[in-house]
């Protein structure tokens, strides 16, 4: 005899508890499900950050200070956000401030 039971996943249980206001009845279950559903599946993010750090350290080891190294690692690890930024105004202002040449006029 085969039973046709619905597939119950942790996400479905969480949604059921949330939608039926059972958080007060089963607070530990609710918290446990929230934690379970938010845990990372793998440690790829940490490994990616470490590999970027090693790459940057190897290429610039002698000339970088710790603060600059941390900034470069953060920019490299979050490259999706960095690539979306528009730096044209910042570059223009920087070039105006750092310009050492006087106009000939």
From TrEMBL:
Q: Which InterPro entries match?
A: HATC_C_dom (IPR008906)
MF term (GO), any: protein dimerization activity
An example Pfam family from this entry, by short name, is Dimer_Tnp_hAT
Where would one find the signal peptide in this protein? none
Q: Which residues form the HAT C-terminal dimerisation domain?
A: 21-73
Q: What is this protein called?
A: HAT C-terminal dimerisation domain-containing protein
Q: Which organism is it from?
A: Cinara cedri
């Amino acid at each position: 005899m085969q039973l046709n039971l619905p597939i119950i996943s942790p996400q479905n249980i969480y949604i059921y508890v949330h939608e039926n206001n059972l958080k007060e009845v089963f607070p530990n279950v609710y918290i446990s499900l929230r934690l379970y559903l938010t845990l990372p599946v793998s440690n790829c993010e940490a490994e990616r950050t470490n590999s970027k750090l090693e790459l940057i350290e190897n290429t610039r080891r002698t000339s970088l200070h710790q603060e600059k190294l941390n900034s470069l690692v953060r920019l490299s690890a979050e490259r999706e956000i960095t690539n979306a930024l528009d730096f044209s105004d910042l570059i223009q202002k920087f070039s105006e401030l750092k310009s050492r040449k006087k106009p000939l006029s």
